[in-house]
Write a structure and sequence with these properties.
Order of helices and strands: EHEEHEE
Bound molecules: iron/sulfur cluster
Strand order of the largest sheet: 1-4-5
Oligomer: single chain
Shape: globular
Helix content: 10-25%
Number of helices: 2
Strand content: 15-25%
Structural class: alpha+beta
CATH architecture: 2-Layer Sandwich
């Protein structure tokens, strides 16, 4: 099973993910980047989260597979 994460080298912190799925994404106030709420790493099957993934303009929301490589979740 994969693990949802935000690629902080791509994230621009405009919080569209948080607006769409606040249970799953939070914004680090100091760093200004999004991250996945602890315990929500498997929530990428939920429609709200999939919508957030699709709507991230930086394509920064990804799922890392058990082999350590990113999975195609589009
Ligand atoms: S929508 Fe994408 S770029 Fe914007 S804060 Fe969320 S993860 Fe970062």
């Amino acid at each position: 099973m994969g693990e949802l994460y935000v690629d902080q080298t791509r994230c621009q912190g405009h919080a569209r993910c948080y607006m769409l799925a606040p249970e799953t994404f939070e914004i680090d106030e100091e760093e200004g980047y999004a991250r996945v709420v602890e315990g929500r790493e498997q929530s990428y099957t939920e429609e709200k989260v999939r919508k957030a993934i699709r709507n991230c303009p930086e394509r920064a929301i990804k799922v890392r597979g058990a082999d350590g490589k990113d999975e195609d979740i589009s």
